[in-house]
Amino acid sequence: MNILIIRNYPSYMDVLNNTYNIQEIGLAKALIRKNNRCDILFWTDKEEKDVDLNFDGGVVHVYYRHGKTALKNTVFTSCDSIIEKYDVLQTAEYNQMQSWLCAKKYQQKAIIYHGPYYSSFNKRYNLMCSVFDKFFLKRYLKLNTHFLVKSELAKDFLVQKGIHEENITVAGVGIDTQMLSNVGEACEESIYLKMRQYSGKKILYIGRFEERRNIPFILHVFKKVKQINPDTKLFLIGNGDNDYLDAVWKIAKELNIFEDIEYQQQLEQKYMAEIYKLADCFMLPTHYEIFGMVLLEAMFYGNIVYTTNNGGSSTLIENGKNGFIFDSFNSDEWCKKIVDIFDNKKLRDDISEMATKTISTHFTWDALSESFVSAYELVGESKK
């Protein structure tokens, strides 16, 4: 099967110098290991070029091409000669114009990989979708366009728009375990050394500092946990707008916990494995998350994850068995659960083991690739 993954976003992905899990690369490598050909079309505002990314199972060919961009959309206007070489086209997001155009022009082989879902917090996206639906949605309904989705929440989102369930495959998101390894290189980063030296309980957050991620709530929960278990520290890794960061540190000082927080703006992906391994638990009290690669990574390394109901948690977590999902932002409830698990080693070990097993068994790209291939085959069969 010849597959082209089209990333139709105006963001540059440097595959040669990348140290993070680029989803398209992880999926392409897994599909190639399953004896398929899989290449990728990426946007660039630099020189157009082709790059071969070699890995242990073969080669991913990457096309870097210009495109017309607007409102976080990219349309590749001069790539038909590339697209026509392939018998499967996987584009991204239902409301992206490149996806809409491929659904019509290449309906025999187009499938859309979709992640977002409705959230009252996501007001701008909701407005964009309402405009798209008014003028463009009917094409998908008429053509019976097929979709892969990242979560059950994303599936429900499309079903409510009239997309038939039989045209939707819940595939999830995977991790590329090769990208999580530091290949034995010693980590000398400050936050890692402080985590390794600290013998108490370690609460971890990794990700961007922004309103959506609700960082002040982490501080309030940590304050209460520390009152019960003084031998606890909070480790934070991530960057954000200066105003938001200033507001976070102001709250930390008001809560008198600023000195109990270790913070670093950024850390190379190759060192993240060691950070996750040292943490006792991971908090992500997000208002909205399409999926959340940090959830995959934290669970893979056996962290006890505390989070909200979101795209990733609804797909990965069986509440109470391999992590915890909360329905509200009640800091007392979050605190109690964290402290209870701190005090119950057997339960903590069981949940940690189950978290690792969930990801390593079901949510690596190699494990998920069969679902993608089955969905690709379904497109071809339904269009005959």
Structure summarized in a few sentences:
With 384 residues, the protein is an alpha/beta fold. 41% of the residues lie in helices and 20% in strands.
Structural commentary:
It is a single chain. The chain has 384 residues and is an alpha/beta fold. The chain folds into two domains: 2-176 and 364-382, Rossmann fold (3-Layer(aba) Sandwich), CATH 3.40.50.2000; 180-362, Rossmann fold, CATH 3.40.50.2000. Helix content is 41%, strand content 20%. It is built from 15 helices and 16 strands. It has helices spanning 23-33, 80-83, 97-105, 123-135, 137-143, 152-159, 190-197, 215-228, 242-254, 272-278, 293-300, 311-316, 331-342, 345-362, 365-382, and strands spanning 2-6, 37-43, 49-55, 58-65, 68-70, 73-75, 88-92, 110-114, 146-149, 168-170, 201-206, 232-237, 261-264, 281-284, 304-308, 324-326. The strands form three sheets. The chain has an eight-stranded mixed beta sheet, sandwiched between helices. Strands 13-12-11-14-15-16 form a six-stranded parallel beta sheet, sandwiched between helices. Strands 5-6 form a two-stranded antiparallel sheet. The mean pLDDT is 94.
